[in-house]
């Protein structure tokens, strides 16, 4: 006997757990057939799915021209996964026959109306303990019983059947949920759009920074090439002057060496004791060579200021000012450049006309 009671209690708990799995997240009631399954594997009543779809589809149809007008979308209320529908709308979603069969089995096993437990457990009136709450006071906006309407605190109030108000407010809540879901879709769409804008801004910024870097690299290359050419020019002039001076130094050195040797020879001649030999040598060799050397002592010299290199000074102030003035083009600059381009091509073939700006 106890086993039978425990089994029935266990079955009751299992059915309650099963009922929780069969609750639609939109209407908060057990699924109403037909039941559709979303791509994210969550289920909805097709009517509830259509309500959400209709509430959010107007936003998607008013988006940019790149969106196809026959395509609708909404987000799953359980996981926020985006569901994209074709021209058939929610009627293009696959029916979940397994869930529908489970609902049929559940109905046959429980043999009770498929209403939430709050509806099955009738509340009793606090003032009239044996009376069930079955009406709704519109004036006080609270559920009450029939005795309160006839004899109690709500006898002068306007009332309506509890089921009517229940269905009305459930419909209002369902509509509000659909509007909220649609609003969430719009916010999510705006966030996605802003994320796309952020990615585009980053890409455009990276591209422009790379473009500026390339332009300045071109300027650096031009400056380096011009620096090399000017340095080579100075170097060639330096080598020419050094070569000339060194040539003169060699000639002066040769003349000096010859003069020293001649002086030594003359000193040796001065030491000759015999007058006849002295006169003969002086006349025929030493004296002639001294005379010739003296005549040749007036050799070439460098002119005044030969060592100066001041004529290679360059003025970079104008170029530096131009480099400091490099800035971004405005729309007017772009139009002026496009207007002047044909004239530049006519006057200077082969030039791009952009040497003065980035």
Please tell me about this protein's structure:
With 358 residues, the chain is mostly helical. The chain has helices spanning 2-21, 46-61, 97-110, 117-120, 146-150, 162-270, 275-296, 317-324, 331-347, and strands spanning 35-37, 43-45, 72-75, 82-85, 135-137, 142-144, 159-161. Helix 2 crosses helix 6. The two termini are 95 Å apart. Mean pLDDT is 77; it is low at 1-10, 64-69 and 341-358. Keywords: Coiled coil, Cytoplasm, Differentiation, Metal-binding, Microtubule, Muscle protein, Nucleus, Transferase, Zinc, Zinc-finger. It is found in: Cytoplasm; Nucleus. Residues 270-329 form the COS domain.
Distance between the termini: 95 Å
Spans of 5+ residues with little confidence (pLDDT < 50)?
Answer: 1-10, 64-69, 341-358
The overall average pLDDT, rounded, is 77
In spatial order, strands of the major sheet run 6-5-7
The backbone outline, from C-alpha atoms, is: rod-shaped
- How many separate helices? 9
Class of secondary structure makeup: mainly alpha
- The radius of gyration over CA amounts to 54 Å
Tally of strands: 7
């Amino acid at each position: 006997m106890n086993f039978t009671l425990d089994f029935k209690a266990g079955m009751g708990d299992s059915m309650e757990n099963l009922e929780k799995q069969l609750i639609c997240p939109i209407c908060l009631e057990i699924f109403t057939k037909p039941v559709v399954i979303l791509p994210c594997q969550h289920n909805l009543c097709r009517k509830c799915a259509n309500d959400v779809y209709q509430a959010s589809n107007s936003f998607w149809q008013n988006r940019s021209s790149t969106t196809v007008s026959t395509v609708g979308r909404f987000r799953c209320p359980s996981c926020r996964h985006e569901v994209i529908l074709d021209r058939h709308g929610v009627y293009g979603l696959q029916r979940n026959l397994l869930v529908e069969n489970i609902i049929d089995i559940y109905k046959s096993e429980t043999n009770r109306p498929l209403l939430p437990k709050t509806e099955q457990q009738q509340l009793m009136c606090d003032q009239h303990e044996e009376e069930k709450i079955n009406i709704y006071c519109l004036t006080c906006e609270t559920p009450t019983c029939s005795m309160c309407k006839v004899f109690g605190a709500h006898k002068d109030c306007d009332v309506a059947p509890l089921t009517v108000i229940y269905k009305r407010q459930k419909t209002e809540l369902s509509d509000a949920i659909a509007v909220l879901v649609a609003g969430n879709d719009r916010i999510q769409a705006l966030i996605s759009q802003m994320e796309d804008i952020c990615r585009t801004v980053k890409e455009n910024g990276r591209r422009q920074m790379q473009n500026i870097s390339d332009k300045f690299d071109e300027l650096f290359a031009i400056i380096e090439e011009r620096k090399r050419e000017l340095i080579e020019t100075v170097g060639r002039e330096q080598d020419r002057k050094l070569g000339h001076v060194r040539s003169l130094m060699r000639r002066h050195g040769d003349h000096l060496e010859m003069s020293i040797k001649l002086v030594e020879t003359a000193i040796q001649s001065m030491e000759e004791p015999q007058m006849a030999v002295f006169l003969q040598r002086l006349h025929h060799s030493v004296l002639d060579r001294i005379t010739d050397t003296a005549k040749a002592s007036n050799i070439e010299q460098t002119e005044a200021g030969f060592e100066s290199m001041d004529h290679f000074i360059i003025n970079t102030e104008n170029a530096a000012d131009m480099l400091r003035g490099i800035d971004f083009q405005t729309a007017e600059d772009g139009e002026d450049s496009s207007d002047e381009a044909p004239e530049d091509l006519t006057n200077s073939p082969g030039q791009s006309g952009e040497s003065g700006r980035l």
